[in-house]
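hey can u check if this looks right to u? its 448 residues, i copy pasted from the old doc so theres a chance i mangled smth
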Amino acid sequence: MSKPFYDRDQAERISLTEAAMAERRTVRERWIALAAPEGEPWSARAALAAEILADELAVVDLGCGTMTLERYLSKTTAYHPVDVVARDTRTIVCDVNAEPPPSIDAQAVVCLGLLEYVLDPAHLMRELSQKYSVCVISYCISDAVKPLSEPRRAHAWFNDFTQNEVETLFTHTGWVIVHTQAIDNAQMVWRLESKKPKKTVHQNKNSINNKSKEQKLYIHSHHKCASRWMIAYLAKTADINARSFTSVDRTDLIRPSEADWCLFGNSAYETAASRKLFGIHIVRNPLSILLSAYYSHLTSHPTDGWSKLERHRAVLRSANLVDGLYLTLAFLEQDNINDGAVGPLYALRRWDYSDPRFLVVRMEDAVGDPSGVLGRALGSANMKVPNDADFRFEAFADGRSIGDIRPDAHYRSGLPHEWRDVLPQPLINHCRWAYSDLLERYYPEVLS
């Protein structure tokens, strides 16, 4: 994948938008790399929308982005996020430029900063008026008193309605305007009510999160991606949220009825996608995987029931550091490292990172901020999470601090960038080429 949308110059952004308009598709480059801070300028908009929605039992956030709206809604309001890519495990993935918006048990739908990116706004608004009774929607009008500093196409916007034009659009697609308010010099927000009769919403306000408790949560990981730490954290989190949890080595070993949450320790995209085991995908910098695997395969990783690792360890002990690193790379690139389990680098190279049904979480971020990163990824602002202090490096490394290296320990150093000082340059160059898709998307700093 190429660089994030707003890292490009204006001409390139306009070109991407115009190409997408000609091809009748969403500018996915705009949304895949969306970061949480990008939603902060829109906090006032989200707060206003939440105020307008104060009496709603449930809302659908269509084009949820960084889910800023959820922070301002009442804790008794059920929140249903929808977006073109998964933002957490609750997210219903829907590209409104390619498919109808979902029908969800809610009376209100929210479209904040969405309509500008829609190829056929009239069709979408008509669909929504048939499915929902209330719509709170914003729009940056083209006849604003203070014009934008850049052309609208530079923001991946597909349309250019004036205030009168967008309000005419609403009334012609089955809506009645009941409230209008300016957010700033360019942006307006409206509360619309459908001309169709209101529907009844059935909502359990006491649920821990907005998913049915019976809905499964799948977490996909790989060898040397903090598997032991992840199992401990997920087991504790599941326990305090009254969920059952299990972990298995491979994606072909789980039965649908086994547990509420399941971690796959050696996941393969082909199996996960074909079995519809969509959920969280834990990734790690491949160069860190390589270095970590070399040392643990050499000394600390258990070999019980793993004959391939026993033989590999014997080979590593007869080799010097550089040769051992290349031998480890070959081991991790195998399609079967133990009883059908795929090697982590084999799996990461073949994963389809463009599949929006898998929410990618960097291992480095998860262990650095467990409650913030994993708590959010697991799916609810109301999710109970363990104490972060219980899951720091020190707690798993017998009190040692990050950087206090013990060569024979499973939790050896905790240093995320140690590979730069140890791996030979030809091996670094190979990894930058072999895992370029993963690195460009999630570890661009590794490429420089």
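The domain at 5-194 is CATH 3.40.50.150 (Rossmann fold).
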